[in-house]
Automatic annotation (TrEMBL):
InterPro entries cross-referenced by the UniProt entry: SoxD, SoxD_sf
Keyword field: Oxidoreductase
Species this chain originates from: Sulfitobacter dubius
Name this polypeptide is given: Sarcosine oxidase subunit delta
Keyword Oxidoreductase tagged: yes
Gene: soxD_1
GO MF terms, alphabetically ordered: sarcosine oxidase activity
Length: 109
């Protein structure tokens, strides 16, 4: 079982109080986007074994969305941060790199 902390209301609880919402930091496609781009936005997602940045919602709490970094293989949670953040904050990146020194956020590559 995952123990998560909501960065909005600072409640720490079991994952059953939250709901996963898929991959974080997706770039939305506007009305003028190509069909292939829209299809990619809707259906193509990463499913890595290892570090993954995800969206979560504090369903039985404040109701707000946030992002979280975790390892899908070990279920280790590196931290959570506000959904309005465009990139993982430095303290999250540092926590990830302590365990995975070679890790690079795809958008930074």
């Amino acid at each position: 079982m995952l123990i998560l902390t909501c960065p909005c209301c600072h409640v720490t609880a079991e994952e059953t109080e939250f709901h996963g919402g898929g991959e974080a930091h997706l770039k939305r496609v506007g009305p003028d986007g190509a069909e292939g781009e829209f299809e990619s936005y809707l259906f193509m997602r990463q499913n890595p074994k290892g570090v993954h940045l995800e969206r979560w919602r504090h369903v039985y709490g404040c109701g707000k969305w946030f992002h979280m970094a975790r390892d899908t293989a070990t279920l280790e949670v590196f931290g959570s941060y506000a959904a309005q953040t465009l990139a993982p904050p430095d303290h999250i990146v540092d926590a990830i790199r302590k365990r995975h020194p070679d890790w690079q956020w795809p958008a930074a590559s």
